Structure formats: structure tokens, C-alpha cells
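Batch job 17 of 40 flagged for manual review because the log was empty.
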Amino acid sequence: MLLQLDHIFKWVNSGGNRTFLLKDLSLQVEEGEFISIMGPSGSGKSTLLNVIGMLDGFDEGQYKFLHEDVHLLKEKQRTNLYKQYIGFVFQQYHLIDELTVYENIETPLLYQDVKSSERKALVADLLDRFNIVGKKDLFPEQLSGGQQQLVGIARALISKPKLILADEPTGNLNSKQGEEIMELFKELNHQGVTIIQVTHNEKNATYGSRVIELLDGCIYK
């Protein structure tokens, strides 16, 4: 078992009212699964991804990741767990504006004390794989949305994570690029990487071996 969520509740209080973002949500994910999460806007898809990725906390429930009780860990321990095992592809890229494409992709390796020569080889490999070698010295603002997304995906893959969390990973890509990314995810999944993606795209959802529908913060089916 890679991770297990048990009876997760997450809410915000406004004006004395409690609005549930996630409501009594339980989910088990085995290593090597490829899961697509679907549902209308506001159903809790991104919130769920952020909870799994340890970027967001929750108000009630239990979360186990690789047999660690995430809800009992201190923030620093959670951060270390996240950096060691999880690659996140964000909808809004989250690239660091002051860093070049090369440096953005390299960043996760700096947290893992990877030797300089090895970092160079890994970054070069991904620049080549994504056909962005010519962009390596540019800054995010000099790239198109699609190119920024490719850099974000490369950065998520560089540390060879056990789990990739992808929030609308092809949202800013043209259909050919989108298909290439989904094929890449499929290939990584065949190599044993667990993938959980949030998508509105029916075709992309079919890459998953399991589709989870969310509605009002609950798993609908």
C-alpha cells in the first residue's frame, strides 16, 4: 500500500458557517496504480491532490503514506517525505521566476544532495527528452505557457519520484504535446511510478487504470 486516507474532512469557516472542501473521504492507493480524478469545478479535486501531496493539512481523519502517519508528523518531517518521494505537476506551473529553465529543473536534486556531475547528466537528459535544450538559459517569463508546463513536468520527474501528482497536466499544452506527456506518464507508470492526475479531459482520464469521481468533496463513485 502506498497511501491510505481514512475519513478525511477539510473545511473552511466563514461567517459562522462551515464549508466542507473534503467530506468523509477515504481512499487507498496501491503502488503502481494510475488514477484519474474527475469532477466538476469546486468538487475538491485540487484540494485532495494537495492533501495527498502534503501541501495542505486537513481537519479530521488519518493519512498514512508508506506506513508513516502523516497527520502525526511535524512539518519538517512531512516536507522531507514529500521531497523524497513525490513529484508535483501544478496547473499554474509554480516555476521560480528568478531561476533559469535549467536551474528550475535542477532544484529538486539540490534537496537530495545529488553530486554536481550527476545533476548535470540528469538535467541534460530531461532537456533533451522535452526538446527544450535551446531554452535552458531562459527565464520562465520568456517562455510560452506550454513551454512552462513542460519545464514544470521535467522538474517533477527529475528526482525519480515514487508518486507523481498532476493537476491538469496537459491544460496548457497543444494536443500533440498533451498526448506526448500522457504517453510519457504511461511509460513511467509501466516502470512502476504511481500516478494520480486531476483532469477534465475524458481522453486523458482513460490513461488511468481507475477513475475516481468527486462531487462536493466526496467520492461519488
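Reviewer: the log was empty due to a logging misconfiguration, but the result itself is present. The CA atoms of residues 10 and 58 lie 5 Å apart. Unflagging and moving on to job 18.
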